[in-house]
Design a protein that fits this description.
The chain is α+β, with helices and mostly antiparallel strands. It has ten helices and five strands; from the N terminus they run ααββααβαββααααα. Strands 2-1-5-4-3 form a five-stranded antiparallel sheet. A hairpin with a 7-residue loop joins strand 1 and strand 2.
Length: 237
């Protein structure tokens, strides 16, 4: 996770969303990924699209999402568990019709990718989810090996970048975290489960959950992982 820490330090030193985005993209190759798409459908009228594929591609993709034809928006952002993406993973998507498979094939060719995986920030069954499509040129076997080594970092990259894009100190003045809230978030960042954190701190599991819930509220975070990302970016843990 050293690269994630370095990324958090870099993001905390830049200004607007565009600078955050460019900083995050500079770390992407280090995790074995070549293309990334961020999609925010929480504002239904205007989908938010960011990618490293260029503005023209972003505009075309936004139109596809708005038309309701995009298989990623429909099938990946409605669930929290990761979904394999890209033309090389067609065997995982036999439930899709030919039009959707054709779109995946065309998109893979345009982006010059073969494999990928979704990371959902906020699932929504009514097509209002938020999430990422992380993609590469690797074979299915190579991607599986890469995922086995780097998935926690991929998820941390997504959460940290989302925090940087959606939050700013001026717009969201954070309430001060208590010592216990910082401790709990720091242990979550280290990969500990609720029971382990409770044992380390000598408190009940329900108390750990309470501290994490309060920290999430203070940081205006959507999930526990999002709260950790925000706390790291702000230098709170």
């Amino acid at each position: 996770m050293s690269q994630i820490r370095a990324m958090a330090d870099r993001i905390s030193s830049v200004g607007g969303a565009d600078d955050v985005w460019e900083t995050a993209l500079s770390f992407l190759p280090g995790f074995g990924l070549s293309k990334v798409v961020f999609l925010d459908l929480s504002e239904r009228r205007t989908p938010v699209v960011r990618s490293n594929a260029g503005q023209r591609w972003n505009n075309d993709y936004r139109a596809s999402v708005s038309s309701g034809r995009d298989p990623f928006a429909v099938n990946c952002l409605s669930r929290i568990d990761p979904v394999l993406t890209g033309v090389a993973h067609f065997e995982s998507h036999q439930y899709l019709g030919k039009p959707a498979l054709d779109l995946i094939a065309k998109g893979s060719e345009t982006l010059d990718i073969t494999t990928g995986m979704s990371v959902t920030i906020r699932p929504d069954a009514q097509a209002a989810g938020i999430g990422w499509n992380l993609m590469s040129r690797h074979s299915v076997r190579e991607f599986a090996e890469l995922r086995a080594h780097h998935e926690p970092e991929w998820r941390a990259w997504c959460q940290l970048t989302f925090a940087g894009l959606s939050l700013s100190d001026a717009q969201h003045p954070f309430d001060m975290l208590t010592t216990r809230e910082r401790d709990c978030l720091a242990y979550v960042a280290d990969g500990l489960r609720t029971a382990d954190i409770a044992y380390r701190l000598g408190i009940a599991e329900v108390t750990v959950e309470m501290h994490l819930r309060k920290a999430r509220h203070r940081l205006r975070a959507r999930t526990r992982d999002h709260a950790v990302a925000v706390a790291i970016r702000q230098g709170l843990i």
